[in-house]
Amino acid sequence: MKNLKLNWRMKSFSLLAGLLLIGLAPALAQSGKKTAKEEAAAYIQVTNQRAGKIVDNMKIADRAKKLRVRNYIAQQYRDLSAIHELRDRRVKAVKETAGSNKEAADKRVAEIEEHTNAQLAKLHETYIANLQAQLTEEQVDQVKDGMTYGVVPITYKGYQEMLPNLTEEQKAQIWAWLVEAREHAMDAGTSDKKHAWFGKYKGRINNYLSAAGYDLNKASKDWAERVKAEQAAKAE
Question: Would you list the domain boundaries of the chain?
Fold first, then answer.
């Protein structure tokens, strides 16, 4: 009988505790939600860490200079985010209030995009000037590559391995277009948009090489076979 009473009490306690926890869940979730100030502080920490990873890969012996450069990069991430977020909010507002007047909405969105691009261009110019005041040109390029996942050197190397007979003129043109793509990609708001810029310029490069007589489909397959053979040889 004692066991039955004990089991009943335990079940009652479990049920009550469960109900209390259910009631507390929204309050707990709400209390765990960050304030705007806390979110801003967390984002500053994230951008500082992201910038720090770039700077850590550079040979900057002066600790004060290293910190300045890290701060420039981190602030650039934050400034870019602010510009893109404002653009997105303004575009969203236009589309939500457009109604049936699509032509007027499209015109307004185009104006917003033009204004945003002007802001980005000005920010880009100031940012590069700040970096150049602290770093060598080679180091500035390291920062640019760090902000764009190293796509320029990786892609340039890939083209040379895929097409070992490229002329110096063709190599120079490929490099120039990849570098131009990087300047745009640096200012993009997301990883996908950064890669989209490189995709656009790689399309231009591929058209250029095709016009020069290269069969890129065949070259790509041949390259894959060479890589496969090299890996097999290393495994032996």
Answer: 37-135, 148-235
**pLDDT band at residue 37 under the 50/70/90 scheme:** confident
Q: Is 190 helix (H, G, I), strand (E, B) or coil?
A: coil
Q: What is the pLDDT of residues 11-32, one digit of tens each?
A: 444 433 443 333 444 544 455 6
Query: Phi and psi at residue 207, in whole multiples of 5°?
Result: -65, -40
DSSP state letters, 112-142: HHHHHHHHHHHHHHHHHHHHHTTS-HHHHHH
CA dihedral over 225, 226, 227, 233, signed as positive or negative: positive
DSSP for 65-95, written as a single string? HHHHHHHHHHHHHHHHHHHHHHHHHHHHHHH
The pTM assigned to this predicted structure is 0.82
* DSSP per position, 161-181: HH-TT--HHHHHHHHHHHHHH
